[in-house]
Amino acid sequence: MEHYIEFPALGWKFGISPDIFTIGSFTIRWYGVLIALGFLLAMIYGLKRAKYFHIDPDRMIDVVLVSTIFAFIGARLYYVLFSSERAEYFADPIRIFKVWEGGLAIYGGIILAFITAIWMCRVRKVDTLRMFDIASLGFLIGQGIGRWGNFFNQEAFGGNTTLPWGMTGDIIQSGVNGSGYTLTDPVHPTFLYESLWCLLGLLVLHIVSKKLYRFKGEIFALYIMWYGAGRFVIEGLRTDSLTMVPGSELRVSQLVAALSVVGGLVLLFVFKFMAERSPKDLFAEETAPSSADGESVAEEGAEQPVQETGAFTTLDVEDMTAQDEEILSEESQTAVQAAMDEQSQEISAEDPFTGLPEDETDPDEKSASQESSERG
After folding, report:
1. Which of 87, 150, 185, 274 has the smallest number of Cβ neighbours within 10 A?
2. Distance between CA 295 and CA 288 in Å, rounded?
3. What's the domain range around 343?
4. What backbone phi and psi angles, to 5 degrees, belong to 366?
């Protein structure tokens, strides 16, 4: 069957299918390809900025790969638990594993991914809050791109609208992916709203991470607040919410979104308080000299590691990674060696009998020499 999507007010109509191609019983879908693309771009971004956050790229990959597996599991379990068909899933548990039939919830993926990351950061000795900061930026990339899979599936749309960008399609008009809307009228492309919200958030938090980053965990807390605020509004437009909060018109996802905003705000103040009370590293290098306009003078085109107030200069033994210990050890050894070399040079320049530098003469000897000269 030929699927299509249409934007009536714009006069656009084109054929589009959820499937890219099929070989026998094996089908490649746009949804899976776009999620994979989002993950790949997020990894590239993370690897490029890992050293800026003082994270070893190899260890970061280990944390991300394990967390991704559990994120997938979390997304599926969240969907099953809050789906209107959960009774059928529990009656036939094998259906839970049939993910190709659809049914993943982003909240479950985010929650279990970060929980797994806490454990993996301890295992691989990676600073947890630094990892959370860079992972938050990666999540925004993945979510912004992955949401376009909903476009090809004609799902995750909202109620009816008369706005110029209202869309419809054969699957939307069939009513299989939503309820509570007029099938023949255009609907809100809420997948597009969320994609744009995530990409805008990426731009904002990327700038914050480069220009206004003050303490560890700041980007993570801002991400939770940003995504929660947008999701609360967008979820209210959707027609396919999993379940409603008993006794109210609030959807479960909206409740989670509201709690995310509040929780992110609390974490922001907690992390800031922790940074302000952290002792400073006595071996921390001085910041690069500043130019006349106040910007740091550094090699052109090179992104410099972030310098924070109490964020990356804390001598917290429990939080110190193996990489930090190695750097600290090397700096200490370098400082000691420099002092020894300087002392050695001073000793070699002294007269072995007088203990004075070779270019200086003992005052008594100088006086006797002058008297002898006058007598002569």
Report:
1. 87
2. 9
3. 324-375
4. -65, -40
Residues contacting 314, CB < 8 A, separation 6+: 275, 278, 279, 280, 281
- CA–CA separation, 86 and 245 (whole Å): 16
- In angstroms and rounded to an integer, the radius of gyration of the C-alpha atoms of the chain is 31
The pTM is what?
0.74
**Of the candidates 216, 249, 277, which is a domain's last residue?**
277
For residue 152, give Cα distances in angstroms to 5, 21, 67, 239, 304: 9, 13, 27, 17, 40
pLDDT band at 283 (very low <50, low <70, confident <90, very high): very low
Look at residues 277, 293, 311 and tell me which one is the last residue of a structural domain.
277
Closest CA to 154 of 35, 244, 39, 31: 31
- How far, in Å, CA of 283 to CA of 166, rounded? 59
One domain for residues 229 and 334:
no
If one counts the domains in the chain, the total is 2
Contact between residue 113 and residue 68 where contact means Cβ atoms under 8 Å apart: yes
Q: For residue 237, what are the CA distances in angstroms to 92, 188, 199?
A: 32, 8, 20
Structure tokens at 342: 């300087």
Q: Say whether 168 sits in a helix, a strand or coil.
A: strand
Judge whether 193 and 167 are in contact, CB under 8 Å: no
**In terms of domains, do 172 and 262 share one?**
yes
Phi, psi of 356 (to 5 degrees): -100, 160
Residue type present at position 201 = G
Residue 179 located in a structural domain: yes
Q: State whether 132 and 249 are in the same domain.
A: yes
Share of the chain above pLDDT 70, in %: 73
pLDDT average, residue stretch 136-145: 96
Looking at the fold, whether 142 and 261 belong to one and the same domain comes out as yes
Measured CA to CA, the distance from residue 30 to residue 33 in angstroms comes to 5
Domain assignment present for residue 11? The answer is no
Evaluate whether residue 350 is within a structural domain.
yes
Q: Express each pLDDT in 311-336 by its tens digit.
A: 444 334 444 555 555 555 565 666 65
Q: CA separation (Å) from 204 to 197, 198, 319?
A: 11, 10, 28
